[in-house]
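Thread title: Can someone regenerate the structure for this chain?

I was given the following input by a collaborator and told the matching structure tokens would be attached. They weren't. Posting the sequence so someone can regenerate them.
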Amino acid sequence: MKSPGNRTRSECDSMGPMEVPADAYYGASTQRAVLNFPISNLRFPRSFIRALAYVKYCAADVNAASGDLDRRKATAIKKAALEVAAGRFDDQFVVDIFQTGSGTSTNMNANEVIASRAREILGGKRSSRDLVHPNDHVNFGQSSNDVIPTATHIAALVEIRDSLLPALAGLQLCLERKSRELMPVVKPGRTHLQDATPVRLGQEFAGYAGQIERAIERVGHAQRRLSQVALGGTAVGTGINSRPGFARRLLKKLSALLAIKVRETTNHFQAQSTLDEIVETSGVLRTIAVSLAKIANDIRWMASGPRNGIGEIVLPAVQPGSSIMPGKVNPVIAESLLQVCAQVVGNDATIALAGQSGNFELNVMQPVAAYNLLQSIAILAAAVNNFSSACVAGISDSGRGPGMVEQSLALATALVPAIGYDAAAELAHEAARTGSSIKDVALRRTSLSKRRLDQLLDPARMTRPGVHGKSRGGE
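Best answer:
Regenerated them for you:
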């Protein structure tokens, strides 16, 4: 909704008149913010605008029921807020993320857009400030200081439920299926990037599935922390200009509307002066990103080659890997995920710094914290979905693992109960010098029969816990 040419109209706020684009639904306060913060092209995401609009919708409903807002005006505000929630006015949310630290400019952006649209619904002019007022009517009982953190929590809860958790659950199932499929394959284990005793390829994938299972549990904890919101504290946590019970009734309606559980905080002074729940949730997302990076890197290493690397697994070939080397195929899906993980860790650092900026009754980095949190949720969900479908689901065994196990010096570990650690170490050293297998050296250097050695050095048997009894020591 852009004005043709440079036409403007005059709007007013508490500081006086301001020229705004003629077709804009926002007003003077928003335009001041546009002029004050020409920093970037970053804006609050759709998920946040939707959450903010639903807060305004429920506020109008509660205020009408309490007699604090004319029902006709409330009906128009509710209809306008639903249109904003549906995305009809996304192009009217024009304020930069790097703005006033409370997010007041974006709160007023919403108030002005909803008020202007409500005036139209009532048959008035878009600029008829007296008909529906952005502060007196749309913002009644609220403050930017409790609305912006509340909208952040709500947006995060909805996106976690609708995007991140389904993506993680899908990846867990995909890894579990792959684990079952690859469980027959025995391959060298590796610690310190050096050969270790054998494992099953399926056991490694079961480990990855376990990481994601625990990631889901961590997200559940974050959801519980986010469910307490700041609404009701208004300016400084005291609830000034808000009717008792306003936040409780609003949040009950909002919970039913969005099918999430949100409730008023038990301590408004901490809820508005800190970003502790956002910092904690971001920490959970960072942990998930670190966990995913481990999985992605393992898969890259196992697929390295195909001739001169480890080459134990084969990844789906999704695109040419080089503009100069014909036939080269790279692990690009895993690389994409790794870049998302790096971004999430960087976002977490920003959020941690933002969390330190709570001074007395208000944290003054609300917008950048909200932006980074919601970006982390969104890109993690998208990358995890892509990793599941375009990479993990198509992984296959290359057939190299079993042959590599036969040449592994770590097989000497299985001889320790029979001949002792020092004697087994001597066998491993000789095998390394001569290029022989552990079994061939053991046949020459010990009194163990071939049958007994076949039993002790059976790689598949080594992957079953308890088969060899108690270990004589750790790594």
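The first strand starts at residue 8 and ends at 13.
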